[in-house]
Fold Signal recognition particle protein.
Amino acid sequence: MFDTLQDRLAATFKSLRGKGRITDADIDATTREIRVALLEADVNLAVVKDFVAGVKQKAKGSELSKALNPAQQIIKIVNEELIDILGGDTRFIRFAKQPPTVIMLAGLQGAGKTTLAGKLGAWLKSEGHSPLLVAADLQRPNAVQQLQVVAERAKVGVYAPQPGNGVGDPVQVARDSIDHARHGLFDVVIIDTAGRLGVDEEMMRQASRIKEQTRPDETLFVVDAMIGQDAVNTALAFEQGVGIDGVVLTKLDGDARGGAALSIAKVIGRPIMFASNGEKLEDFDVFHPDRMASRILGMGDMLTLIEQAEKTFDAEQSRKAAEKLLGGRGEFGLDDFLSQMQAIRRMGPLSKVFGMLPGAGQLKAVSEIDEKQVDRVEAIIYSMTPAERADVGILNGSRRSRIARGAGVEVRDVNDLVNRFTEARKMMHSMGAMMGGGMPGGAQA
Ligand code: GDP
């Protein structure tokens, strides 16, 4: 969604690279380019003005650090300003002291509320909570049934009106659901409310009444990031009509320009709390302003990657593998390679994982990573004996043809893998030697 903005900013920063010092004229030229980039990305005009003024003031002011080169300084300032317009610190859900915590979802029809209820439910469950989804959207045909399906998929509880029992009164359903949660030991209630195609008074009134009656701990405004400046206007209308605590951006996987969505937090003074970027349950994340800023600046989303890596990696195993790879004790073998590769694959589809690395997003090769090719590499390694995996040196002709047969590939493919692996290992060894073994501390930034 932010590709064009990323490209424009990257080009802007590139023109600063190599400059020994930055003059006021450079700063003016750079901020002009940033202004155009933001406006083209559909960022709200008032937000752009503030942003550019902030960058200019900091860049010309005394905050410049001697440790950074001029391009780095500007990137740092732009990064800080971006984090600021995106809401500053990450804002997590405020849980009620006395359960259940009540989360109300509001927004236009089609914004993705029902889908989000499932995602939020699944996420809360993975965090150790016991969520209950509540179908208080009785306007849209099938909305109740859709929520039931979503809850089942997310493996969380659902409270839906039974025919003849409160049907037609979403306020009653929402109120009853809280008692139901207390009795059923659910500690979070997620209320899915009705939306309309456009903002209207009746919808606002109903949302306000549900809010009054259930006193949510969090009222979240769910908005489709693809609708441009309407996202900002709708957010303002909901803030004034219902009162909201936080924003959830959906459909960030779309190819619209996205700048409007980035303006919401600043314009309405409420943080973006979650982001949804796909139709599947797992296409969902807590929104971290700092990570989004570094993603937009093309620094990749290193933190997300590191967090995912932490979840899936066996730290001890990785440390040993890295040590071997850099020429320490033991020899890095195909068995180490296999387990590292599998650890990476557990983080998600490879193109997605590598896409988060700095600069990798633009590489065509990354979007074309062929998972089948990777499957084939795995199959080849699986067809080897442990001794062969540990030491590719023993792979003579007959071993190679046995492995090829076992993996259902040509001998050529086995040779190819072994050669590339040996080359790569050689390169890592010389890198290890260059770093003198003292990895992070010894390495020069
Ligand atoms: P509601 O009317 O606000 O409850 O919206 P729904 O949850 O029914 O979503 C409307 C449509 O948007 C559905 O087809 C969803 O599958 C789709 N949708 C929801 N979130 C996302 C998202 O993050 N990305 C994409 N591509 N589609 C989404």
Summary: Confidence is low (pLDDT under 50) at residues 437-445. The chain has 21 helices and eight strands. The longest strand covers residues 218-224. The beta strands are 101-106, 131-136, 157-159, 188-193, 218-224, 246-250, 272-276, 284-286.
